Amino acid sequence: MGDSGETHIRHAFDSFCKKVVRNEALNIQKKYARFRQRQISMEILKQKGLDTESYYSEPNMNSSGSFIVLGIKIFISNEELANAIAALSSLRQEIILMSFFIGLNDREIGDIIGKSLGGVWYQRQVALEELGKYLGGNYEAKQTIYTVYTSSYY
Fold first, then answer.
1. Bridge-partner residues for 73, per DSSP?
2. pLDDT > 60? residue 147
3. How far apart are CA 8 and CA 6, in angstroms?
4. 18 and 94 both lie in a single domain
5. How many CB atoms lie within 10 A of CB 9?
6. Are residues 82 and 64 in contact, defined by beta-carbon separation less than 8 angstroms?
């Protein structure tokens, strides 16, 4: 192969690498933009009257607010939320707990439970609607902060 052939291959590979890096940078920017949309400013919480002093209290280990997912025991200090999650089907409980309390995305959850990305998304949306109905309709899962304790030892 001549020098021009090798140069062409080098340029083609260089172009491919640049596209991969650019697209990955765009994916990261989109991910952070979605994350910023879901964050809540402490000022907004103060305006809504949800500003409370932070404190630590020992969770009740025998309460109904404990769930085990992926070998992690999750304690939910808000009894109303814990009861609402307990009322969900086991699949939806797992998806909600893995999504909001462990922090896994839909693809990671799908790999763990053997469902497609769309299937996990649908089940999470239905679970959020059920939680909203159970909690009286004034609940937004993405904008409510609850104290959660996790432990990998149970």
1. 68, 151
2. no
3. 5
4. no
5. 11
6. yes
